[in-house]
Structure formats: C-alpha cells, structure tokens
C-alpha cells in the first residue's frame, strides 16, 4: 500500500519493513469518490495500529498482527455513532456552504458563532442562504476570501490542483514533511507496568483540540487505555460533533485567561504524558504556553499539534477546517471537473480530519515508544493541508464505485449510554492480536467532569 508506506516512513523510516510482516487488510468496498478515500482511511488507521503494536511489544520481539477492515474503516470516516430513539443536531449552520462568486466558487464556514459573525460583518445581515447568495455573487472570490479572513472568519475559494501547487501556500505545504518532528532534551526513560490488552493504561493525555481531527486522535488513544482529559473554554460548543468524538474521555472546562484556572492547567501539564492541541501558530504561546514554557512545566511532555493550512508559508496562521482545505487544495475542483458537475464536489466524508487524527495518534505512540526505550522527548506537527497533498496523489479520472448500503451487521451489538441517549457504534475497524478495544466512558457533554486526572501516574 503506497499510502501506508508513505505514512510509516514519515513516522519512522524503519516502519515499512515491519508493516510487511504485521499488517493485513480485510473486508472490501470503497467510499464513492474521485480520490482513494478508503485507501487513506485504511492507511491512517493501520499506521496508528502498527504504532500501537510497536509500543506494546517487548524490545526485540515481533509485532502483534494488525488488521484493518476496509468497509468498517470507511464507515468510521463517516459517523460511528447511531442513536437509538434520538437524533443528532444538524452538522452545518444554515449559512455554511458553497456559494457562486462573480468569478468562481467560495465556501463559507459559519458553524461557530464568531465565524458566522465575521462573515456577516463583511457581507451584511442575511437570514438564510437564499438571502445571502445574491450578495456573494457580486464579489470576486479572492477579494471576498481575503476580507472574511481579515475579519477573523473562515472562507476558501475553490482552486484547482495545479493552481494550488503553484500557490505560495500550496508550494510551502508540499515542501513540509507529513509529520514534522522536533527533538528535545532527553530525560530518564520511564518504565511502566503494562496491561497487554490495554497497553496505554496510565498514559495521561491532555486534549485541547476541537471539532474533529485532534479529538479523533484522543478517542483512538482512549480506546486502548489512555486517560484522556479534554479541556474546553467556557463558551465553546460543537453539538453535532461532541457525541461522536468524546467517547472514552472525560471533558472539563478551563479559562486559560483566568489565574486560578491557569494554576489548575499548569498542574495538569506537569503530570501529563501527552498534550494534543490544534492552536494556530503562536496562539498557544500568546496564552503563555510556548514550547519553552511547556518544557519548564514538564520536560518529558510529548506535544503533538495540528493546524489547517500548514506551518510555513503566508497562510500558516489562517483559520481553517477540512471542508475549506478541500476547496483550497483542488480536491473539490478535481471532482467537479471529472464528474461534469455544475458546483464543487467535496469528498464523501471529512477525510482530511479523520486521517490527520489517526496520524496524530500514530505520532503520539511513536514518540512514547522512543521515550520509553531511549528517553528521547519528541514533538510532532501535522496539518490538514499536508494530508490533502497526500490524498491528491490518489486522484483518478474514474470514480471509486461506493460502498454497499449499511446494515445492522456493521454495528456493534453493545449499547452505549451517551449523555443524550442510547446508541450503537459501528464496529471498530482495527484489530490487534492480544489487544482489546475498550472505552471506559460513553460520549458525554463538554465541561461535565472535573479538571483532574483519573488515573495514578
């Protein structure tokens, strides 16, 4: 699998040979797309599984067998949660979506209230899409994109694959590694007793991520025993996504502009093994938590972060989401052109988010393994735009055909008692010999738990 080899090399140049002996793909089917979305799902989940198998292995021992089911991996890149007798909120704000401009197409992302307000500060008040479309149609796309971004909003003009490659940001992202590693001062290796079935027991993960990619990483780590504590500010919510991604976690709230909450956060960082965050470059530093400050609090901390548009280039600090990166990077244009459609054609799932989430989990596991064996302390940076570069290599002139309809056999028989009501999950696509997927907590509300660790160090 070329994608898996690429990912494993980005994580660790010794990875592909181990994968040849340890990795298998089961099941069949593909998500309908002009790109290899299911191939990316299998590769990303497989890379995380192989990293976990390596972390759990005794030094010098062979890796446990790892298998990923293509169909189930595709379904987990959709929505894993299937409510029983209740419904999830709508995913998109009524104003969010693709709009025709005077010279092409633009996507507005208005799910967060402050992003909606930013877009309307440029375009004027509108009650719904029908109200807004004539206004957007009078704007040139690049101009409107720049104005909304300047107003601290989120928008993306649709560009073609070649246009993105020649764009200053596209060129900068293409030159970045898929996983950018930083090595810090080594510490004394930590030896922990390990439960073979749940090898991440006792690992503390402080999760500051939102929406999808980072929370997917934390959810994966929680599945294998990690103590994952999600921290959100007082006013943040993402009601359509929270039931999907808070599985296995406890969710607390802190205001990092409040002195008492900062003291609590400092104590959490000191005792954490892993920090996940998705702040734009400089944003966490502006709160007083740059790399040096984090190292002072905890020299052994594994820090894994992501952003939307990459870590170099003129857009490194730009706000963004999966659907916007699809527009910017040529993915929506390629599919529209090949399909002969009259509007942008997005991926069938938020594949950049999901894939980057599993790659973050794999990076965490690789870093923890290196720390356990050598005392090396590693940080990693990833981005949705760099994942888009990887996916773009799978573009085709004919679409993948699509999955067979979902059936009850795709669902786990267990009932998850979420904070909103009972639900089934799709069966997990990853199997590792001798290990068991188990989430200690059902999905729950943000800020519903105390900001403290539940496990002993």
Outline the structure in words.
The radius of gyration is 21 Å and the shape is globular. It is α/β, with parallel strands linked by helices and 457 residues long. The strands form 4 sheets. The protein has a 7-stranded mixed beta sheet with strand order 7-13-12-11-8-9-10, sandwiched between helices. It has 18 helices and 16 strands.
Strand order of the largest sheet: 7-13-12-11-8-9-10
Strand content: 15-25%
Binned, the helix content reads 25-40%
- The residue ranges in which pLDDT falls below 50 over 5 or more consecutive positions are none
Can you give the mean pLDDT? 95
Radius of gyration: 21 Å
| H/I helix tally | 18
Shape: globular
Overall number of strands: 16
Report on the biggest sheet. 7 strands, mixed
* Structural class assignment: alpha/beta
Distance between termini?
38 Å
Tags for this model:
457 residues, alpha/beta, 7-stranded mixed sheet, 3-stranded mixed sheet, 18 helices, globular
Short characterization:
With 457 residues, the chain is an alpha/beta fold. The protein has helices spanning 2-11, 15-22, 37-56, 70-76, 113-123, 129-137, 141-150, 161-166, 168-175, 213-223, 242-245, 259-271, 283-286, 291-297, 322-328, 331-339, 351-374, 384-392, and strands at 23-26, 66-69, 81-83, 97-101, 104-108, 155-157, 180-184, 204-207, 227-232, 249-253, 274-277, 302-307, 377-383, 416-418, 421-425, 430-432.
């Amino acid at each position: 699998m070329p994608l898996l080899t690429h990912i494993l090399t980005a994580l660790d140049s010794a990875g592909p040979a181990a994968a040849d002996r340890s990795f298998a793909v089961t099941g069949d089917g593909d998500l309908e797309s002009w790109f290899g979305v299911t191939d990316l799902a299998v590769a990303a989940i497989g890379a995380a599984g192989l990293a976990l198998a390596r972390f759990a292995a005794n030094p010098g021992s062979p890796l446990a067998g790892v298998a990923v089911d293509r169909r189930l991996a595709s379904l987990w890149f959709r929505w894993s949660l299937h409510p029983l007798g209740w419904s999830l909120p709508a995913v998109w704000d009524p104003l969010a979506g693709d709009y025709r401009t005077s010279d092409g197409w633009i996507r507005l992302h208005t799910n967060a209230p402050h992003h909606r307000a930013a877009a309307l500060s440029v375009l004027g008040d509108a009650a719904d899409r029908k109200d807004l479309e004539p206004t957007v149609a009078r704007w040139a796309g690049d101009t409107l994109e720049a104005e909304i971004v300047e107003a601290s909003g989120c928008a993306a003009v649709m560009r073609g694959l070649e246009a993105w490659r020649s764009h200053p940001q596209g060129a900068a992202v293409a030159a970045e590694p898929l996983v950018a590693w930083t090595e810090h001062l080594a510490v004394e290796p930590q030896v922990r007793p390990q439960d073979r079935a749940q090898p991440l027991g006792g690992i503390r993960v402080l999760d500051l991520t939102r929406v999808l990619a980072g929370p997917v990483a934390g959810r994966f780590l929680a599945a294998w025993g990690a103590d994952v504590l999600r921290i959100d500010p007082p006013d943040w919510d993402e009601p359509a996504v929270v039931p999907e991604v808070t599985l296995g976690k406890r969710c607390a709230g802190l205001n990092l502009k409040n002195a008492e909450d900062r003291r609590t956060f400092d104590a959490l960082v000191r005792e954490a093994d892993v920090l996940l965050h998705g702040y734009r470059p400089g944003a966490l530093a502006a709160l007083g938590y740059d790399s040096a400050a984090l190292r002072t609090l905890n020299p052994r901390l594994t820090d894994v972060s992501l952003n939307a548009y990459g870590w170099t280039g003129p857009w490194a600090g730009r706000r963004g989401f999966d659907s916007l990166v699809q527009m910017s990077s040529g993915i929506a244009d390629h599919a529209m052109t090949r399909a002969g459609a009259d509007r942008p054609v997005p991926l069938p799932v938020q594949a950049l988010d999901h894939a980057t989430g599993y790659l973050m989990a794999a990076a965490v596991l690789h870093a923890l393994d290196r720390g356990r064996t050598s005392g090396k302390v590693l940080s990693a940076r990833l981005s949705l735009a760099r994942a888009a570069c990887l996916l773009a290599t799978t573009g085709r002139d004919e679409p993948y055909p699509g999955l067979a309809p979902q059936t009850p056999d795709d669902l786990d028989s267990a009932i998850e008692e979420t904070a909103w009501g009972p639900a089934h999950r799709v069966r997990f696509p990853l199997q590792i010999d001798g290990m068991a997927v188990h989430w200690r907590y059902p999905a729950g509300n943000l800020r519903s738990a105390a900001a403290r660790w539940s496990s002993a160090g």
